Amino acid sequence: MKIGIDKIGFYTTPLYLDLTELAQARGVDPNKYLIGIGQEKQAVIPPTQDIVTMGANAADRILTDEDRKQISTIIVATESGIDNSKAAAIYVKELLQLDPFVRAVEVKEACYSGTAALQFARGLISLNPDEKVLIIAADIARYGLETSGEVTQGGGAIAMMISAEPRVLAIDGPSVPYSEDVMDFWRPLYASEALVDGKYSTSVYIDFFQKTWERYQTLTDQTLSDMAAMIFHLPFTKMGKKALDAILGDQNDPHSVLMRTQLAASQALSRQVGNLYTGSLYLALLSLLTRSHNLQSGDRIGLFSYGSGAQGEFFTGILQADFKEMVRQADVEKLIMARKQVSVPEYERLFRAQIGYNSKNVFLDLSQDHEKYVLQGQQDQKRVYLIQ
């Protein structure tokens, strides 16, 4: 029985910051951002959106009434949790008006947990093939204004319907997980911004990729020539290039050229929205499927998932016959093209306007947010959501 991604959808807010303008405001050569880390634009998150509303907005784009009836489990993968006890999935389930007889949980391990949710979903469906699992990977990447990590911020959500006989990508085995206790990135409970050792994190990322990729080859006897594309978790797009270069070196044969072309296709959306944390790998998948002209049914895609702290996993998937029809390229392009640019001062104002970690009553101005699902504010230490 095939199990994998039957539908995949994406949401990010209607606001973005041009990184050339940010570079100029910070007194930095724009090429440090545009070329050095490979980013052009960055999603700006208004205070009326958080992981719950972005997750619901992403899921709403792909769900039909029939889908909603078949969902047995909803898993939210995030490292931007809004409560240390209550799962964000509970809020998302209510906004989506799903049946109450649904399992709802939240999972965490930095940027990796979307993949953990996918593997958990595969196990559930193998036991109950008629059920479907909704995975939402939603995050807001925050490092702080005028910090070294500011240019690798961003936000948004990926929603994936996992089912038997999927129409996008059937996940193949085996997968290779690898973990170590590493302090390359963390966010203490008292902090809304992450702490990171950037150079160390990059080296750990590449090391984990090489370890999992080498073990995968040993277990399967497959090589790079068996892959139609290799995609990566992309906290910034240059990271994917560094990982691919670690195994390609300076090779320039036709398949190596193809791998680099496919990588560029997978980077396109991340270059426009920035870091999605748990959703980043799957945004790369969506970008590949909507931007590449070199894919066909039956192709094997290699996926490397990574979360600081640290956990990596390499696995593969097989493209299915209907993948082109199911990725809804027009919807993705419309979302990206309809966004409005904000100035650096406006971005800074919105950054500071987040509810954050406090017990105050907050009533947000919804007049500028026309999305279906919004955060109305906080009252009596409870977040209040609204369907518009």
From TrEMBL:
Residues 178-248, 262-352 form the Hydroxymethylglutaryl-coenzyme A synthase C-terminal domain. Residues 2-164 form the Hydroxymethylglutaryl-coenzyme A synthase N-terminal domain. Keywords: Transferase. The active site is at residues 79, 111, 233. One of its GO terms (molecular function) is hydroxymethylglutaryl-CoA synthase activity. Belongs to the thiolase-like superfamily. HMG-CoA synthase family. The keyword Transferase applies. (3S)-3-hydroxy-3-methylglutaryl-CoA binds at residues 29, 143, 242, 275. One of its GO terms (biological process) is acetyl-CoA metabolic process. This is Hydroxymethylglutaryl-CoA synthase. The keyword Transferase applies. Transmembrane segments: none annotated. CDD domains: init_cond_enzymes.
